[in-house]
Each structure stands twice: as C-alpha cells, then as structure tokens.
Design a protein that fits this description.
Layout: H1 2-36, H2 43-64, H3 70-76, H4 78-103, H5 107-128, H6 135-155, H7 160-178, H8 183-207, H9 218-244, H10 247-253, H11 256-268, H12 275-304
Helix pairs in contact: 1-9, 1-11, 2-4, 2-8, 2-9, 3-8, 4-7, 4-8, 5-6, 5-7, 5-10, 5-11, 6-12
Amino acid sequence: MAVEDQEKTEKTDNLTGVTIAIGSSVFWGILTIYWKLLDGVPSSEILAHRIFWAFVFVLLLLAWKGRSRELTRIIKDRKTRNWVVCGAVLISVNWFLFIWAVTGGKIVETSLGYYMNPLFTVLWGCVFMRERLGRWQVVALLLAAAGVMMLALEYGEIPWISLSIAVIFSLYGFVKKKVSLDSIASLTIETMLVTPLAILYIIYIQAAGNGHLGTGSWRLSLLLILSGAITAVPLLLFAEGAKRVSLSTLGFAQYISPTMQLFIGVGLYHEPFSHMHFLSFCLIWSAIIIYTVASMRYTRSLRSRGVG
C-alpha cells in the first residue's frame, strides 16, 4: 500500500505541476495586452515600477503568511544567495526586453523568443541536469527547432531580441530548478536585490518631471501600481511548477504563452503573419503533440519495468 500511495502522490504532484505550468503560460500570454495599455511610458520606467511593486506585493504576501524570517535564512546561505542573485539579474533583463519589444510593436518577435525558450530549457535539462529524452521526444524537439528556424529565416537576419529572450528566460528556469526555495520567498529576495535601483530611478524621473505616476491619468497610475501583482502571480506559478515537473516537460508546456502572444500580436495589433509563420506554427504544435504522447508512453514504460 505504501508504494501505491507513493505512486498516487507522485502522479498527483506531477499533474498539479503541469496544471500550474500551464496556468503561468496562459497568464503570461494575456500580459501582452496589459503592457500594450502602457504604450507611451518608457520601458525603463515600466521596469522600475514593475520591480518595486512586485517586491511590495510578495513582501506583503510573505508577511501575511508569517514567514518573513525566511528571508534572513536565505541571505545567510551563501550558495543559495548566489543562485538567487543570478535569478534576479536574469529576470530583470528579461522583463526589460519583453516590455521594450511589446511596447515597440515587436510582439511577434517576443513570441518567437518564447517559442525558442523551451528548446533551450530542454537543452539545459539534458546538458546540466542529465535528463534523458526518448526517440520520439527527440523527433519532437527537432520538429520544434525546424519551426523556429523557419520563423527566424522569415526575418532574414539573426533575431537577437528573440534569441536573448529565449536564452535569458530558459536560464532563469534552470536557476529556479537549482534553488530549492519556496516560490514566494525566492521571488521576494530576487526583487529585493534590484528594488533599490528601481526606487532611485523612480525618484529621479519623478523629480525631473518625466515620471508618469500621479502626473497623468489615474488609470495610468493604477496600471503602473498593479504591474507588481500581475508580474508576481505568473512568476510564482512558474516557480512552483518548475519544482514539480522536469525541465523538458516544463519547457514544452511554455509553448502556450508564445502562441497566445502570436494571436494577440496578429489579431489585435495587426502585426504581419506570413505563410512561413503559419507553417512554422503547424510544425511547433505537431512537436508539442508528439512530445506529450511520447512522454506519457515513456513514463508508463518505466513504471511497468519498476523504474522511477
């Protein structure tokens, strides 16, 4: 019974992890519209508010749960602190690139970046975590890579925005996998490390008369303040999902977000969508279907042999 209970717990935990990972991807897809509402506000100012208000949100959440003392323990642990610092730098750069690209009318390019992201996530899982892929999983990976390459060729140049987003965010996922911390405490430390810079920048632009908080419409000020909460929620979901599922599974679940971004960019904001984009989209979703089916069969095979 103990073995059966353990297997049941593992299945439930994995299902919960997949659900959480999907939830974070859907949330990120919708966020594209949110940042578009801030069109006209400099990306650097949006980033500063995003960092500061995210820190306030997670700090209050941590205090509400009565776990503020965890911050001291994390900071004192040198190894953990170093990983968290890496995570703080990576996520801050990712935020800036994404905001800058979306507000600059490059939603399709950000979509390409997040399509590439799972490929790099799977790569880090295989290289650093020694996660193994089955034959059909490799086929799925190659199909997805072909789809991404078609999108890259469509631009006729190296898509540096897309590549930067993909590499940076996939490395952030790897860092979250290495740090066995509660998602709320981890995000609190990450945002706390860069919040002083964000505060100084907000004070500077407000004093210079260039800030938008309280100087424009109440709607704009509210959007800037709420940017913290809508930033923290999907990140908390992502961090929780990363702890429950493999990097490879986490990577492919993240194709939901760029697909939503692609539809939003083309459907709502009328960015170009060619036949090459359509073919690439079909390849990538074919890869997702193949990967999902192959993963389920591979897991069943291991369990039938008493492995894992």
